């Protein structure tokens, strides 16, 4: 960045200016500045979720547009992702500290061929904050990983993430395998990721498509409640 950038004192900026500066800093992959900005907003009384959505996800949306348009390339986007993760690391314990009662459990992972994990990590963080126990399988998961984790942890929910149009069909491979093995109805299957939509979720046999992490939490709560009610009346 230019020398002007070095002279900016983040703490002197208004909230609005600071958020815009953080979008620039995320774009430039400046992890320390992002961490500083997150801490300043928290000190000013911003709720962790607001910092996450407005300052971090807002910045990543701009990166995504320029990545799509060929203005940014993989190395720059990796730096932006690293800066975003720095900010998320600060927010993670705060989002988890809600003291929410235990709601249920979830195994989640990004599907085979896909290494995008920021959205999945966000979903994991928010689910933990809402009282769910989360087993995160990481990225690039073949069907065998999901099956092994489901057998081991016996969660209420299976969550899958995909960010590429080329990897999202793999979610159907996982669901079809569960059907073949007679295990599909043992789990609530929730799917998410930028290229998905509700129609796709239905077409592959998922219980629900979740647009974002907040929707994932609400959907998970609703389905777990429904499952427990069914068990109680059975
Ligand atoms: Co990637 N990439 N990328 N990338 N990348 C996208 C996805 C893309 C849309 C960019 C673009 O062209 N505009 C495009 C996909 C096009 C398509 O298929 N339609 C793309 C491409 C093409 C690629 C490569 C092929 C580029 C290349 O190599 N030429 C390559 C593929 C690598 C691979 O996976 N095999 C690639 C690589 C990368 C990086 C490694 C550089 C980096 C990932 C770093 C990382 O994740 N650690 C990266 C990034 C950062 C992006 C963008 C810019 C940002 C993704 C992100 O983190 N968003 C992205 C553009 C975009 O999405 N606008 C792009 C922020 C995050 C909070 O949102 O992930 O959508 P999101 O998650 C949301 C919801 O979707 C939902 O909740 C989350 C939180 O609210 N959600 C779930 C997500 N998962 C869920 C699971 C659930 C529920 C909800 O389960 C219950």
TrEMBL record:
<dbReference type="GO" id="GO:0005829">
    <property type="term" value="C:cytosol"/>
</dbReference>
<dbReference type="InterPro" id="IPR050554">
    <property type="entry name" value="Met_Synthase/Corrinoid"/>
</dbReference>
<dbReference type="InterPro" id="IPR036724">
    <property type="entry name" value="Cobalamin-bd_sf"/>
</dbReference>
<dbReference type="GO" id="GO:0008705">
    <property type="term" value="F:methionine synthase activity"/>
</dbReference>
<dbReference type="InterPro" id="IPR036594">
    <property type="entry name" value="Meth_synthase_dom"/>
</dbReference>
<dbReference type="Pfam" id="PF02607">
    <property type="entry name" value="B12-binding_2"/>
</dbReference>
<dbReference type="GO" id="GO:0031419">
    <property type="term" value="F:cobalamin binding"/>
</dbReference>
<dbReference type="GO" id="GO:0046653">
    <property type="term" value="P:tetrahydrofolate metabolic process"/>
</dbReference>
<dbReference type="InterPro" id="IPR003759">
    <property type="entry name" value="Cbl-bd_cap"/>
</dbReference>
<dbReference type="GO" id="GO:0050667">
    <property type="term" value="P:homocysteine metabolic process"/>
</dbReference>
<dbReference type="GO" id="GO:0032259">
    <property type="term" value="P:methylation"/>
</dbReference>
<keyword id="KW-0808">Transferase</keyword>
<keyword id="KW-0170">Cobalt</keyword>
<comment type="similarity">
    <text>Belongs to the methylamine corrinoid protein family.</text>
</comment>
<dbReference type="GO" id="GO:0046872">
    <property type="term" value="F:metal ion binding"/>
</dbReference>
<feature type="domain" description="B12-binding">
    <location>
        <begin position="103"/>
        <end position="234"/>
    </location>
</feature>
<keyword id="KW-0479">Metal-binding</keyword>
<dbReference type="Pfam" id="PF02310">
    <property type="entry name" value="B12-binding"/>
</dbReference>
<feature type="domain" description="B12-binding N-terminal">
    <location>
        <begin position="9"/>
        <end position="103"/>
    </location>
</feature>
<keyword id="KW-0489">Methyltransferase</keyword>
<dbReference type="InterPro" id="IPR006158">
    <property type="entry name" value="Cobalamin-bd"/>
</dbReference>
<protein>
    <submittedName>
        <fullName>5-methyltetrahydrofolate--homocysteine methyltransferase</fullName>
    </submittedName>
</protein>
């Amino acid at each position: 960045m230019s020398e002007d950038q070095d002279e900016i004192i983040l703490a002197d900026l208004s909230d609005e200016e600071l958020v815009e500066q953080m979008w620039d800093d995320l774009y430039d992959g400046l992890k320390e500045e992002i961490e500083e900005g997150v801490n300043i907003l928290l000190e000013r009384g911003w709720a962790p979720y607001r910092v996450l959505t407005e300052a971090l996800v807002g910045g990543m949306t701009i990166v995504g547009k320029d990545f799509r348009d060929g203005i940014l390339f993989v190395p720059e986007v990796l730096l932006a992702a690293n800066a975003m993760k720095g900010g998320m690391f600060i927010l993670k314990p705060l989002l988890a500290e809600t003291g929410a009662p235990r709601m249920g459990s979830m195994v989640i992972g990004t599907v085979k061929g896909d290494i995008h994990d920021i959205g999945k990590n966000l979903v994991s963080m928010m689910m933990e904050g809402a009282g769910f126990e989360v087993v995160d399988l990481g990225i690039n998961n073949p069907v065998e990983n999901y099956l092994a984790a489901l057998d081991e942890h016996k969660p209420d929910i299976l969550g899958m993430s995909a960010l590429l149009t080329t990897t999202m069909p793999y979610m159907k491979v996982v669901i079809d395998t569960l059907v073949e093995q007679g295990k599909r109805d043992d789990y609530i299957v929730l799917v998410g990721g930028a290229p998905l939509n509700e129609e796709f979720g239905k077409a592959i046999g998922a219980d629900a498509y979740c647009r974002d992490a907040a929707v994932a939490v609400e959907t998970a709560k609703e389905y777990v409640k429904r499952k427990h009610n069914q068990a109680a009346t059975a």
